[in-house]
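User: Thanks for the earlier help. One more: Acetyltransferase. Can you show the sequence and predicted structure together?

Assistant: Of course, both are below.
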Amino acid sequence: MHHNQSNVTAQPERRHGDIRYFQAISQNQPIVDRHHSLEQEIAQAGEHKRSTTFRHLFTDPATFFIEPAFFCEAPDTVTIDEGTFFNHNCALLGYQNICIGKGVFIGPNVIISSGPIADYTTSSAPVIIEDHAWIGANCLLLPGARIGAAAIIGANSAVAQQVPANSRFYNAPVFDPGLSSHA
């Protein structure tokens, strides 16, 4: 059986379900090129050199630690203060400011976005994480999120609002062993 191919116009790469991502990347190609160059250097570096090289991505040379894999869409819009720790597989997305305070712990697989992401939001706004906050694994911080000092964000949470200092926030389903069933 022979299948005819229809005439399909090639579409730019889509990421996060949004064509605006491609447009933003096109407008910021020098930043993207700088990131890819450093990314190659990081991949070939040892653990100590890797941490130093990550710091060169950002304009502020504070001492912080980043585990691989790490992606930052617009390093020039990001401020990371002393003693911050990024666990594995984190991403900083968007072209609005992302400000991360002192001694912040960011768990694995966290996405912090100051720009639109698929169906979650169509707006852009800065994201602020104040000193000594903890962001649990698999969290999504959306444009406009502000995490107060020493606040704790529970694993698998999506945050698009202000979380007060010294508070706990979670909006993911919480596991209750008393409710589990065995087949």
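User: Great, one quick takeaway?

Assistant: The longest strand covers residues 90-93.
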